[in-house]
Amino acid sequence: KILITGALGQIGTELTNRLVEIHGAENVVASGLDRWDKNLTSAGFYERMDVTNTQLVRQVIKDYEITTVYHLASLLSGTSEKQPLFAWKLNLEPLLNFCELAKEGLLKKIFWPSSIAVFGKGIPKENVGQDVVLNPTTVYGISKMAGEKWCEYYFDKYGVDVRSIRYPGLISWKTPAGGGTTDYAVEIFYEAIEEGKYTSFISENTAMPMLYMEDAINATLKLMEAPKENLTVHTSYNLGGLSFTPKQLAEEIKKEIPEFTIDYTTDFRQAIADSWPASIDDSVGKKDWNLSYDYDISAMTKDMLKNLRVKLADK
Ligand code: VAH
Questions:
Q1: Where is the NAD-dependent epimerase/dehydratase domain (predicted)?
Q2: What separation in Å is there between the alpha carbon of 76 and the centre of ligand 1?
Q3: Which of 70, 151, 174, 226 allows an S-S link to 4, with CB 3.0 to 4.6 Å?
Q4: Residue 275 CA to ligand 1 centre (angstroms)
């Protein structure tokens, strides 16, 4: 069976539902800190589980005979800056526990999300490569860099099949994002529909790597289904997709909602965004496991507004 941690989160809800479509509900165990929310996940099973409780996690793995784990539970960049020590604990210890379980032969495969937050000072802003020096300046970026090194260690030393993607900012409509720096690009759509205007906490010309959730989920499944021998990266694969500024996104929204207006009041997350690249070179993923994308900024904007109008009308 497959276990997803953080299954009620922004990535988790959509990844869980896709895994159910592929493997069947009876083979998917969703887990999260919150109470079960039937309409959020179609998994056959749900375990209310604190991933830092290593004994409980080990018991769940054994009880359900889990062989693959998608470990998504984590604190994002904004929240991590506010709770550094808890962020370090939550973002690292459960990953190590899953790697230990795999080393003991209890797990066959692990997916773990890293982030473009691992990049920081001293590198060009554009088209950042797979093997540039990692100089993260945020708690979140430091935790993700450390996690990548642990993934590589367990692969090199024990052959643990742990696979990872450095996600850019992810945009989706099914589940709100939580505490991220790129979340302006999610909130803006809700407010464009509900208020006709949005105050962005990221300045107008700050470009960041972004991707529509559909493309991120497809990339994740492609990586996980790739033959192990094809993989040349054992820290985490760059993934770039789109790159745009709040101003460019607002222009796209105005094509669908002409009266939409945006203004800017930056907060502490501007400094985080300034430390990150503007665009990513993801050619290694394209070569190793045929990474591709379906949504450009225009197709994403149309799909977001179409689906959010329906979702928000039901409220
Ligand atoms: C964040 N959405 O903003 C996440 C992501 C690259 C950004 O890691 O923290």
A1: 2-240
A2: 6
A3: 70
A4: 12
**What's the number of CA atoms in the CB half-sphere (13 Å) around residue 233?**
24
Q: What is the ipTM of this complex?
A: 0.95
Enumerate residues lining ligand 1, CB below 6 A. 76-77, 115-117, 140, 167-170, 180-182
Ligand 1 atom showing the smallest separation from residue 276 Cα: 6
CB atoms within 10 A of CB 29: 24
Note whether 58 and 49 are within 8 A (CB).
no
Reference 296, options 238, 230, 214; nearest CA is: 214
Pocket test for ligand 1, best of 81, 82, 115 (most atoms within 8 A of CB): 115
- What is the pLDDT tens value at each position of the chain, 315 positions in all? 999 999 999 999 999 999 999 999 999 999 999 888 777 678 999 999 999 999 999 999 999 999 999 999 999 999 999 999 999 999 999 999 999 999 999 999 999 999 999 999 889 999 999 999 999 999 999 999 999 999 999 999 999 999 999 999 999 999 887 889 999 999 999 999 999 999 999 999 999 999 999 999 999 999 999 999 999 999 999 999 999 999 999 999 999 999 999 999 999 999 999 999 999 999 999 999 999 999 999 999 999 999 999 999 976
> What contacts 24+ positions apart, CB below 8 Å, involve 147-152?
147/91, 147/92, 147/95, 147/112, 147/114, 148/114, 148/118, 148/235, 148/236, 149/235, 150/92, 150/95, 150/96, 150/99, 151/95, 151/99, 151/112, 151/234, 151/235, 151/236, 152/234, 152/235
190 is written with which tokens? 């809700």
Are 181 and 273 spatial neighbours (Cβ–Cβ below 8 Å)? yes
SS3 64: coil
Of the candidates 61, 71, 118, the one whose C-alpha atom is nearest the C-alpha of residue 94 is 71
- Report the distance separating Cα 308 and Cα 212, nearest Å: 14
